[in-house]
């Protein structure tokens, strides 16, 4: 490989990029759009679930019970119902996701220390949110029940007894359990994978389409020189994207970066090498910009989104899919980014993922160089 | 063989290329001497570009063999690429780059040494007449400029052999003239030029010509040889009014092979001019033409090629009929 040729190709490719508004939009504006869009839209936290209440009891006890819901950050009381038709209408209009029906005898039974029943109606059309909301509701009810029991015991004994069991949960690494803190690092991985492969998927195919490749393959330029030269400016774009994403994560979403910045940079370089080479390989095999970009999008977006552990935990997947995720490079990068971002871990914890990414990059690079032939088919 | 390597820049033996059932180039054999301007002629789709691509090592041949600059076109394609300049039919520089950036790119690719780079760049810019446009995007240049720049980039590394695939198509006549002046200058420096064209006037500029038709080489020789020796027929020129109508009358005569409009008159291909001239005169006078004086003329290259192609079609027609 001759540095002079690689340099000439890199310079030429850089000029193409800065003169083509399309590639600048795709390389810089699109990733920003994605990170903002997903960053805001893709939250897995269930907060402020709209609630409608039919309080048949209308006693201090029932009002106290309802205030426990409204007072928590999980529910927000939207309206009161007078009958089931009100509830049905509210759920159909999605004014409410959960309805609470407090029976007439609720106050009486609670006062008397007898078992009281409340009805919760949940909109199951969004089953994930419904399950989570129901979990919150059960928790509130359990706490309320415990408090009622303790209060009763206090009145009888004159002192507040200790509850028999007291769980004190501690969440590490993401203490507030804000899903955005886990989503933003994963999102960076997905976006970099997609953009890197998409950008490079155009470059070789474009030269075949415009006819400039015919001139190039009649020169002594080697395939490896051409591919490396073409990759270099895209490394630059990838790193700018990374920097922007880190800044947006920090300042727009308040996601702290706990680990070392240089480690993040190094890992991103290894990852970019594989992702860019993959796009290049697709471009070499596809030979048409349209085919190559479509294929690059499908080959990177879906696996990076669905199988990287970014949204759906890999441990919950069927066994064969779990095995399959091992060949998805984004999987390792998601792990690495979350490790650096949330846990602040170092290379000692991440070297395995880094090595696998390097192997992936090396393999794809070799195949791309091998597949690139200086011949017209 | 060592001697032939020194004399010939290109040698081809039965070179063939098929794409599926379609035979694009069929057993072409020819040699091109060093320092020669060799013209490769033929109608569109005859196999000119396919042949030139095989010579440049960018299209693997399906059969036969060949050498360029002493290197085998199948096995040593990369060695060939160091010794040639190639200008493809389509404009193949980067339109979004400026004149200078394109030149710099190709100097990098050809690894022109730093001390020579400036001088070569200025040479190309001057040769192409682009002193005023050196910072213009290539897309904004006219056809003649683009083509001279493309040639300049293809020969930055001063290759001993250059391949030009229809370099002057779509270029105005003045620019074509300038381009050929350039080719002569290069040939004068000992560079071998292998050029395809379908312009007959350009064919006259070449030292030697090969005519390719439907993938087969049907004639090979200097322009003079082709005009005097390759024609079995003779040409009669008829200058008259209403030539379109006269053509119909003449083609009806039994000994006339073919008649074609040519400038202000007709070129009539006949077996023997001495017998044909009186007969043509008689026919036209009978039809009311006045002052018609048919004359035998030396065939132009175009006459030669039209005649050779027609002869080939006549010879192949029964075979094709049979094959059906």
Structure write-up:
The complex is a heterodimer of chains A (377) and B (324). In chain A, helix 3 links the parallel strand 1 (49-55) and strand 2. Chain A has 14 helices and four strands. Chain A has two domains: 3-43 and 178-371, no CATH class; 49-157, abc type-2 transporter like domain (abc type-2 transporter like fold). Chain A is mostly helical. A four-stranded mixed β-sheet of chain A has the order 2-1-3-4, with helices on both faces. Chain B has a six-stranded mixed β-sheet, sandwiched between helices. A four-stranded antiparallel β-sheet of chain B has the order 2-1-4-5. The model of chain B has no long low-confidence stretch (mean pLDDT 89). By secondary structure, chain B is an alpha/beta fold. The radius of gyration of chain B is 23 Å and the shape is globular. The chains are: A mainly alpha (377), B alpha/beta (324). At the A-B interface, helix 1 and helix 8 of A face helix 3, strand 6 and helix 4 of B.
Q: What is the highest CATH level, the class of the largest domain in chain B?
A: Alpha Beta
How many individual β-strands of chain B? 14
State the total count of DSSP E strands of chain A. Answer: 4
Q: Ranges of chain A with pLDDT <50 over ≥5 residues?
A: none
Number of helices of chain A: 14
Number of helices of chain B: 12
In the sheet with the most strands of chain A, the strands line up as 2-1-3-4
Quaternary structure type: heterodimer
Q: Give the termini separation of chain B.
A: 44 Å
Q: Approximately how much beta-strand content do the residues of chain B carry?
A: 25-35%
The dominant shape of chain B is globular
Trace the largest sheet of chain B across and list its strands: 6-7-8-3-9-10
Mind summarizing the main beta sheet of chain A?
4 strands, mixed
Q: What fold name stands as the CATH topology of the largest domain in chain B?
A: Rossmann fold
Please give the domain count of chain A: 2
- Poorly predicted regions of chain B are none
Radius of gyration of chain B: 23 Å
Percentage of β-strand residues of chain A: 5-15%
